[in-house]
């Protein structure tokens, strides 16, 4: 279908430890399918199947259908979503690297060894790697990167599911309970449920790249028909992975399920399989970070170029030739801005290294405006849906319910971050 769709958040990352709402991924699947179908009809303008104008990106669609003011708002939200996703990747990569060292420590020194490691060193290491990789020119044109990311994603997902299943057999029983993680008070239970909403919202960022993927399709048949069928299959397959990882993770570890279930098998043998799976996660995220970051780099660098056309700092390029490597061009703006960007994502990850809570907050912030509100409003304009018609009322009700989900997810995740920071 295209390259970037493989780099949405993978099943093992942030979904396993959400037992408070086990049916929520199915609900979110239906919501994502509805949102995607609305966006698919916005690709051609004015007619969704034979309109002469092609709309090739989410932000372009918002501009065409809703105007420049809405485009600016959506642009800020998209960039914030991409920046937040990159910060979440720093946290995730650090937890997987720490899990590799912990697994090796237990194997070498025994299960009674303390084997306690922090995240800071691994975040700094990941950040240094990203500073170097962010200077690679035309990184976004490396098609093989999506292939490698897809292979890594499927590999560690299958390993995680298999290990969870094996752990359940080893335990001889299903851990946890149907009521989910216990809490001391009803209020605390509600916070956990609200945070779960945000976590699951983060796992479905598919809508903002639908039009970019659809632009790679050929017709006939009309692109919107092909994209709707392909999206249906992709979303259901993704949801199956989410549910398998979440259910087997909770069945294996119960109330102690970690956000990334691969980090929970510290005592498990063969330890090298745990190391391999977590290494696949890290390799996936090394490339995934750049996939999330390249649109931010391109947008900001274009803005600086337009704003300062006569600046040598912005526009002068220099060629560097390293031994055994082809020469490549760079400039001072790229060096400074991209380095500062990586430092900012690494710094925020170090300040708030709370895996599930951060994912939940990011998911809640972007779920309703990007996945629901803008697609619904663009669909109204595309299909010329009149106010107070049955379709208008149904979609506005749908949008309002999703808005409430965003609000409770944001509140729950923010409370979890504040509580973790103060504890």
The mean pLDDT is 79
* Strands side by side in the biggest sheet: 1-2
- Class of secondary structure makeup: mainly alpha
What percent of residues are in strands? under 5%
- Would you list the SSEs in sequence order as H and E? HEEHHHHHHHHHEEHHH
Parts with pLDDT < 50 across at least 5 consecutive residues: 1-23
Outline the biggest β-sheet: 2 strands, antiparallel
Amino- and carboxy-terminal Cα gap: 45 Å
Number of discrete helical segments: 13
Shape: globular
Helix content, binned percent: 55-70%
What is the alpha-carbon Rg in Å?
Answer: 22 Å
DSSP strand count: 4
Model description:
The protein is mainly α and 423 residues long. The protein is 68% helix and 2% strand. The chain contains 13 helices and 4 strands. The chain has helices spanning 24-40, 58-66, 68-109, 120-133, 143-171, 186-202, 210-214, 223-253, 271-307, 312-315, 332-351, 355-383, 390-422; strands at residues 44-45, 53-54, 318-320, 328-330. Strands 1-2 form a two-stranded antiparallel sheet. A two-stranded antiparallel sheet has the order 3-4. A hairpin with a 7-residue loop joins strand 1 (44-45) and strand 2. Helix 1 (24-40) packs parallel to helix 12 and helix 6 (186-202) packs across helix 13 (390-422). It is globular. The termini are far apart.
């Amino acid at each position: 279908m295209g390259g970037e769709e493989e780099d949405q958040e993978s099943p093992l990352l942030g979904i396993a430890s959400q037992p408070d709402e086990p049916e929520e991924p199915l609900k979110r699947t239906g919501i994502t399918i509805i949102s995607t179908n609305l966006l698919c009809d916005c690709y051609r303008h004015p007619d969704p199947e034979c309109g002469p104008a092609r709309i090739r990106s989410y932000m372009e669609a918002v501009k065409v259908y809703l105007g420049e003011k809405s485009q600016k708002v959506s642009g800020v939200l998209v960039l914030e979503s991409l920046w937040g996703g990159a910060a979440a990747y720093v946290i995730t990569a650090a937890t997987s690297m720490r899990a590799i060292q912990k697994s090796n420590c237990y194997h070498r020194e025994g299960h009674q060894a303390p084997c306690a490691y922090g995240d800071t060193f691994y975040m700094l290491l990941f950040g240094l790697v990203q500073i170097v990789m962010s200077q690679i020119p035309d990184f976004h044109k490396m098609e093989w990167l999506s292939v490698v990311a897809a292979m890594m994603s499927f590999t560690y997902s299958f390993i995680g599911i298999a290990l969870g299943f094996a752990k359940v057999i080893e335990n001889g029983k299903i851990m946890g309970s149907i009521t989910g993680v216990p809490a001391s008070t009803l209020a605390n239970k509600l916070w956990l449920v609200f945070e779960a909403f945000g976590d699951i919202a983060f796992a479905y960022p598919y809508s903002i790249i639908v039009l970019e993927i659809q632009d790679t399709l050929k017709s006939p048949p009309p692109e919107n028909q092909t994209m709707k069928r392909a999206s249906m299959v992709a979303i259901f397959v993704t949801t199956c992975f989410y549910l398998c990882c979440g259910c087997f993770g909770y069945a294996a570890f119960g109330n102690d399920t970690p956000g990334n279930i691969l980090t929970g098998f510290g005592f498990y043998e063969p330890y090298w399989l745990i190391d391999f799976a977590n290494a696949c996660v890290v390799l996936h995220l090394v490339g995934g970070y750049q996939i999330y970051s390249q649109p931010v780099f391109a947008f900001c660098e274009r803005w600086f170029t337009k704003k300062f056309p006569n600046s040598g700092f912005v526009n002068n390029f220099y060629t560097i030739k390293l031994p055994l490597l082809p020469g490549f061009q760079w400039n001072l703006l790229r060096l400074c801005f991209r380095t500062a960007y990586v430092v900012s994502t690494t710094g925020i990850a170090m300040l708030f290294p709370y895996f599930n809570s951060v994912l939940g907050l990011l998911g809640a912030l972007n779920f309703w405006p990007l996945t629901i509100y803008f697609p619904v409003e663009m669909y109204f304009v595309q299909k010329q849906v009149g106010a107070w018609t049955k379709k208008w009322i149904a979609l506005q009700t749908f949008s309002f319910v999703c808005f409430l989900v965003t609000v409770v997810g944001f509140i729950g995740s923010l409370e979890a971050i504040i509580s973790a920071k103060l504890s």
